[in-house]
Write a structure and sequence with these properties.
With 489 residues, the protein is an alpha/beta fold. The protein is built from eleven helices and 22 strands. The strands form six sheets. Strands 12-13-11-15-16-17-18 form a seven-stranded parallel beta sheet, sandwiched between helices. The chain has a six-stranded antiparallel beta sheet with strand order 2-3-4-5-1-6, with helices on both faces. The relative contact order is 0.13. It binds 2-acetamido-2-deoxy-beta-D-glucopyranose (3 copies). One 2-acetamido-2-deoxy-beta-D-glucopyranose binds next to loops.
Length: 489
């Protein structure tokens, strides 16, 4: 429970920073609120009004709305009672100072309002369409949208063989800088023998040549700066991380769960795998980063618009606290998740850009236009990476989305990384979910090497695109560039 204590204080600190004096006068009209008994008991044999259906909504407050939650709801016309004991509450942390954080407010009919957010305050509730339409017009509401299901679109594993993985120690050999690279400005370049193929690919200028090596074997070589992204914070918005996995060497911590405080872990496996590609010792691109686990997807690898926004907001809030600490280097949000578009997601990403957070998102796995999968599709408006996946021959992975909203490619098939089921094992997965964390890792490397880019996501994108290898990604019609860490160029 150590991680829980750490994270609570983390969020509390962020909370206190955003407190402000409540608005003194209220000019906000009351909402017309319908009797809510239909929502309270769906088993009642009363048909819902087909002209006014109910649904769950995500509602984000305007930035200048600083008053207590109870006052906000009261003014809207809802008679609420805050639940002191909400063990079934949606969000993990009781990080509630006066009015921020994760709280549950009961309505008279037994339904409830769940609040979340510290840097950006929001809530979810089930309401009638007529109520939602009224609420959307209120001046203290920034976003109001229906909640929706979200996932990672994991690619089925049936299409390839998983080879048995030899349990060998990692062989990292030091090379002199001059032997490898002329442009390298600082630091030592080390070579890891016994790396997975995706790491070799992002440190070499050409496609991997298997030469009898199995693509899922630890038989490849990875050249990387020895500092390995030291001290950079990488927020993994995913299913959680098995922080006890030996490959994380104690650098991984869970800081948030959208599924209760007893769920600060990875009860799927997707999140432990993606975290391993960012920063594990053996499978990781940047072997010295801090990995912060944000559980926004459940044990079935599924979440909702609300759980994703809450997770992203938790990353932003933690970043805003960390930037004020002396050992802060830089932050990256890595998010191998996608689905329908959401204004709330857009708003958090926009704030991240303003706050100097770097973001990498998976382009998703439907072999279609990546501009229709979000939040990656926001790459046209916001400084975020939207990552397409390639196979070992540098072709577009058959499943990868493509098109103008993809702005870089990285290896995404047959990717070996950490598994969540115990503290030692690995597994092979494929998807743009596996390509996105490789980009997050390279961002961490470049944050350390380029202090001037630490809080400049737009310039970082240009820099990493310039390091990338210009090559034909067969089957992709944009972003003909392959992620590269630049050590051999
Ligand atoms: C819902 O209605 C049924 C049938 O009237 C009743 O048995 C049940 O207790 C009600 N549940 C709640 C939560 O009110
Ligand atoms: C580590 O790699 C170097 C260089 O390839 C090799 O000479 C050495 O034998 C390897 N050591 C082990 C323990 O495999
Ligand atoms: C993994 O490590 C944790 C912490 O040391 C331990 O409690 C847990 O039992 C370990 N899991 C397995 C499967 O060995």
């Amino acid at each position: 429970m150590k991680s829980f204590i750490i994270s609570t204080s983390l969020l509390l600190a962020a909370v206190s920073s955003t407190l402000a004096a409540p608005l003194s006068n209220s000019r906000i009209p009351k909402l017309r609120v319908r009797p809510r008994s239909l929502l309270a008991n769906a088993t009642l044999p009363i048909a819902e009004d087909p002209n006014d259906p109910s649904a769950k909504y995500i509602v984000v407050l305007a930035d200048d709305e600083k008053r207590k939650w109870a006052d906000v709801f009261d003014e809207m016309g809802f008679n609420t009672n805050e639940l002191k004991d909400h063990k079934d509450g949606f969000y993990a942390f009781g990080a509630s100072s006066d009015d921020h954080g994760f709280r549950t407010f009961a309505l008279e009919d037994g339904t409830s309002i769940q609040t979340f957010g510290t840097a950006m305050r929001a809530f979810t509730m089930t309401m009638f369409q007529s109520e939602a339409e009224g609420m959307k017009e209120l001046p203290n509401i920034a976003v109001l949208e229906k909640d929706f299901p979200v996932g990672t679109g994991l690619v089925e594993e049936s299409s390839y063989e998983v080879a048995s993985i030899p349990d060998e120690p990692v062989n990292i050999t030091e090379y002199s800088v001059s032997g490898l690279d002329k442009r390298q400005q600082q630091g030592q370049v080390v070579q890891q023998n016994g790396a997975p193929w995706n790491l070799e690919r992002i440190s070499e200028t050409r496609a991997v040549s298997l030469r009898g090596r199995g693509v899922t074997q630890l038989a490849f070589n990875y050249a990387v700066d020895s500092n390995g992204g030291t001290g950079v914070d990488v927020y993994m918005v995913d299913t959680g991380i098995n922080v006890n996995h030996v490959e994380f060497g104690g650098r991984a911590k869970m800081i948030f769960s959208a599924f209760g405080q007893n769920n600060l872990r990875d009860d799927h496996f997707h999140g432990t795998h993606t975290a391993g590609t960012v920063g594990s010792r053996r499978y990781g691109v940047a072997k010295n980063v801090n990995l912060f686990g944000i559980k926004a997807l459940d044990s079935n690898n599924r979440g909702t618009g609300a759980s994703i926004v809450a997770g992203m907001e938790a990353a932003l809030a933690a970043h805003l606290r960390r930037v004020r600490e002396p050992n802060f280097i830089g932050s990256v949000m890595s998010m191998s998740i996608g689905g329908g578009g959401s204004q709330a997601q857009f708003n958090v990403l926009q704030r991240m850009a303003q706050a100097g957070m770097h973001v990498s998102i998976s382009a998703m796995n439907d072999n279609k236009d990546a501009c229709s999968a979000f939040p990656g599709g926001y790459s046209r408006q916001l400084p975020i990476f939207n990552v397409g996946a390639t196979d070992p021959s540098d072709g577009k992975a058959s499943f990868s989305n493509f098109g103008p909203c993809v702005n870089i490619h990285a290896p995404g098939t047959n990717i070996l990384s950490t598994n969540s089921k115990d503290n030692q094992s690995s597994r092979v997965l494929q998807g743009t979910s596996m390509a996105c964390p490789a980009v997050s890792g390279v961002i961490a490397l470049e944050i350390v090497k380029n202090p001037n880019l630490r809080r400049d996501p737009r310039a970082m994108i240009q820099h990493i695109q310039s390091l990338a290898i210009r090559t034909q990604i067969r089957g992709a019609n944009s972003a003909q560039i392959m992620l590269n860490n630049g050590v051999k160029r």
